[in-house]
């Protein structure tokens, strides 16, 4: 009897209980393939899931969704890909048939693949199903592009979609609340889209300092000064064209509406704790003609465009990757991100192998 091949994986056993263990490698799905994971980003949502009881006791589980690697094994019935192909796997595969997909909102697909319950990419190998192959979630990484750079495509996709949807453009003044990796992505992209002024608000001075390299014009530490008054001062009392709250704080959402100009746009980009409610001055929203936009995900074409941008020289993806660590140091990566020392952590599974990443 042939022994099942093994792999290393970061297994979550409960809140902040992540262990590197040897487990069975996934079998090749009929019509699909097995990806050898070379690079995977550590996302803020991963950290939230890994440090809370995100699965309500249903453990162990493997998270990780910013997945890039090479095809290692292919089903005989899968003809689209071959061993060695360099691929980026977007986690949410869309049906492209439901009403949401057909109206350009595949980010709200009614039949989206169940990516939250299948094995994630914090492991040496990741199984890609026939359904994923048949849908819109797989992108080829050019030979002249590093796999580390391609791993930034997934978090960039939602940022790209948000700014396209609200029309960030030439001459805009943009406020971003939260100088984590997403906030830094927003600043860089806003400047590429022609924004004139980017104001970054954060409670961590080191993050504010790091954010300056991504086009931030003004920084505000909201622990040291009133961010609403500061934004008003910097905009000559007018307020910003667009305000993006890219953090999990209800207080930031509450404050954001007072930073926007009359008829301005306020985006709730970061999800808050489940069950947490934000108290909003709806009279202020009403009489100032504000648009409130809840943003989540990216449609299929926005995913593709974000991937193309992430691997381009214009985006300068390498500048965001402050820490590249072996998968076995995932707990260190979590701490580096939570303290603000890291902008973006990229993890390397298959860490003992000499792989061109």
Question: What's this model, at a glance?
Answer:
By secondary structure, the chain is of the alpha/beta class. It folds into two domains: 6-152 and 320-348, Alpha-Beta Complex (Quinone Oxidoreductase, Chain A, domain 1), CATH 3.90.180.10; 156-294, 3-Layer(aba) Sandwich (Rossmann fold), CATH 3.40.50.
Can you tag this structure with a few keywords?
2 domains, Quinone Oxidoreductase, Chain A, domain 1, 6-stranded parallel beta sheet, alpha/beta, globular, 357 residues, Rossmann fold, 26% strand
How would you explain this protein's 3D organization?
- This protein has 357 residues and is of the alpha/beta class.
- The chain contains 12 helices and 15 strands.
- The strands form 3 sheets. Strands 3, 4, 5, 6, 7, 14 and 15 form a 7-stranded mixed sheet that branches.
- Helix 12 links the parallel strand 14 and strand 15.
- Helix 5 packs across helix 11.
